[in-house]
Write a structure and sequence with these properties.
This protein is mainly α. The protein is about 75% helix and about 0% strand.
């Protein structure tokens, strides 16, 4: 991968794989208060998910001992609640991050509250697209043999938030179609970038929690809080990578020819001796 030049600003350009990671990291470090502030939204969302799942388990306990298929159903419902709120929260963070980058690229100052104010103006089309995204994901993952399709669609639709934030009010299906259009023929590239950054962000919290279990006597609830805070601080980096992937994909889509020719013109003469 090509990592330099980093150049996190002048967003509307093509970047190599390594340049996207490097630009995201430098932008995060240079504007840490902004992006840490944006990530703080995920902390109450994490607590809300934990609370809802706890209330669900309490309700199950009130009903009585649940085993077998019923226990699996309740576990699936808890997972759906967690996945839905996590993806919705991450989508809003991605939209706020993309809008912040455009403001910075234009030379204007912006803070976390300003970023969310801008994102709030796009909240309806964003939520409509994300709810459709989550619904399809849940239906596909509920059937084990369709999980590969769910993974393929997850990458294909991972640019939904910046599409809504930066390209105006689109209908949900049009938003998903536009994201797929930008990802087309770049699935591995987009999936590796968003997937690598997302995996790192998701693993940081549990990894730190596992280390603290062995090194400290903190209660489990405190360990969950620490993991949630680390997750909230790491996810803005994922949002930055996703935004730079969007700018790269859009630049390539608009600048590079889309037609595939069956013949190329010869550059040297080739004849038999």
């Amino acid at each position: 991968a090509t990592w330099t030049p980093v150049a996190p600003l002048r967003l509307g350009r093509r970047r190599a794989w390594g340049q996207i990671i490097a630009a995201s990291g430098r932008m995060y470090l240079r504007r840490a208060p902004l992006f840490l502030g944006i990530g703080l939204l995920l902390i109450p969302i994490t607590f809300a998910i934990t609370l809802l799942q706890w209330l669900l388990l309490m309700a199950v306990d009130l009903v009585g001992v649940v085993t077998g298929d019923a226990a699996g159903t309740w576990a699936f419902v808890a997972a759906v609640i967690g996945t839905t709120f996590t993806l919705l929260g991450l989508g809003v963070v991605m939209a706020a991050t993309a809008l912040s980058l455009v403001e910075l690229d234009s030379g204007r100052s912006i803070g976390p509250i300003d970023a969310y104010r801008l994102a709030w103006s796009r909240i309806r089309p964003l939520l409509r697209a994300l709810v459709l995204w989550v619904a399809v994901w849940i239906v596909l993952t509920a059937t084990v043999f369709l999980i590969p399709v769910a993974v393929w669609l997850a990458v294909r639709w991972c640019l939904v938030a910046p599409v809504v934030a930066l390209e105006g009010d689109r209908r949900p299906f049009a938003t998903l179609r536009r994201s797929g259009e930008l990802v087309r023929r770049r699935w591995i590239r987009v999936g590796s970038l968003v997937g690598v950054s997302g995996a790192v962000a998701l693993l940081l919290g549990p990894l730190l929690g596992a280390i603290l279990i062995f090194l400290t006597d903190l209660p489990l609830a405190m360990l969950n809080i620490v993991a949630g805070v680390v997750y909230a601080l790491a996810m803005p980096f994922v949002a930055l990578v996703t935004a730079y992937v969007y700018f790269d994909a859009r630049s390539r889509f608009e600048l590079e020819p889309v037609e595939h020719v069956s013949e190329l013109p010869a550059e040297i003469a080739v004849e038999t001796a």
